[in-house]
Amino acid sequence: MSLQTLKLSNKNLVQTNSFINGRWKSSVNTFPITNPATGETLAEVADVGVEEAELAVQAAHAALSGWSGRSAQERQKTMEKWHSLILQNSSDLAQLMTAEMGKPIVESRGEVQYGASFIKWFGEEGKRVYGDIIPSPKSDRKIVTLKQPIGVCVAITPWNFPLAMITRKIAPALAAGCTVVIKPAEDTPLTALALAELSREAGFPDGVINIITCSKAESVGTHLTTHPLVRKISFTGSTEVGRILMKNAAENIAKISLELGGNAPFIVFDDADIPSAVEGAIASKYRNAGQTCVCANRILVQSGVYDAFIEAFTEKVRALNVGNGMDEGVQIGPLINAAGIEKVESLLADATSKGAKVTTGGSRNSSGDLFFQPTVIEGVKEDMKMSSEEIFGPVSPIYKFETEEEAIEMANNTIYGLASYFYARDIGRIWRVSEALEYGMVGVNTGLISTEVAPFGGIKQSGMGREGSKYGIEDYIEVKYVAMDY
């Protein structure tokens, strides 16, 4: 499959060059974008470097005063136009996303809607960035606080949500009056470039939005995150890289938001509604073939319902449809690359060698090299690697516990603290467990928690800062105190 074979209505969405200062920037060097479902090369994309990254930062800096000088209402109108264009082109964007990332087309369509929602939400929220007048201890002084845009922002985004992770980061930045430089993941730049084309059509001034495509993530990323003109960095990715970026940000005391690794527990208590818990676990674990930072990484089931849950859950998992994400009805697409599937196999081998038992799946699927059969493995213990590592694949490890206290201890026994889930009906238990779980987000009797109106983010080594909701714009704002004598 090539990009030319996609049935796109808007051919302008197919772009393969970086987007800097309102113009498409080519390069003598390119790198291939591969369809993970078929192994075919979709396109060759401009492989730019530090020089182009510098141009992008300078363009964003030059555009800052003009964009921040517009009223919040003016910025909102441009963002609303962009939002409308994304929805008008939703089918094309979904096709591009599935082609380069592999997720089922129905999930890609959902991501377009989800990603667009942040643009609409923050366009409106930008009009509600209020300052304060503070009662002064002196009768001839007024104390005023102003909220102003922080400046040039850098967003480094992952491959698993190539549209929504961009909009979730840059929508609050744009609404606040900041300008942005985006470095999308090298596996999935086509969706990002399509967004850039639509932003150009929406009328954003040159330099407000810039996108750098490159395979040299380390050198370009270092340049962007240590640049003295960059005042805010937002990154979604691994905890290991997050630590490096924190050190880079310290060089210029730049503000940083990090959404890092996860090890989400999904707890099923004896008093849970088991059919609902099964459906919630399927939704949480197998969306995007398990390649999400908030998907259930450990499923903890209380002994009284353990056998019933395993039986019902395994039956549902066995029925999941694996195949090319472009085909309607497919529920599980490919993993992103060979490293992803090799990691899944390694974690399974470790668990089974230590006594865990696969109840369904456990091997590659015949659909292609990067497809893995949805898997359930029971009898998993905390000394197995998959208990501490992010699986990032369609594998569900099941653990047995006896008491509420044991479940909380097991759930919190990790360096991570992003998302968590549990199913219960006792109201006392719901409050106790919600407060005891050491996670930035808790889903109670639900396996899906993401929405533009709620604060998304983690604690411990899952990061800092929040994206979405009224809190999401605060990371892109500086508070200035003005003392005015008269």
TrEMBL record:
Database matches in Pfam families: Aldedh
Name this protein carries in UniProt: NAD-dependent succinate-semialdehyde dehydrogenase
GO biological process, one term: gamma-aminobutyric acid catabolic process
PANTHER family assigned to the protein according to its UniProt record, in alphabetical order: SUCCINATE-SEMIALDEHYDE DEHYDROGENASE, MITOCHONDRIAL
Annotated InterPro entries: Ald_DH/histidinol_DH (IPR016161), Ald_DH_C (IPR016163), Ald_DH_CS_CYS (IPR016160), Ald_DH_CS_GLU (IPR029510), Ald_DH_N (IPR016162), Aldehyde_DH_dom (IPR015590), Aldehyde_DH_Superfamily (IPR050740), Succ_semiAld_DH (IPR010102)
Active site as annotated: E259
Record-stated family: Belongs to the aldehyde dehydrogenase family.
Lineage: Bacteria, Pseudomonadati, Bacteroidota, Flavobacteriia, Flavobacteriales
Superkingdom classification of source: Bacteria
Alphabetized GO MF terms: succinate-semialdehyde dehydrogenase (NAD+) activity
Alphabetical UniProt keywords: Oxidoreductase
Domain Aldehyde dehydrogenase: 27-482
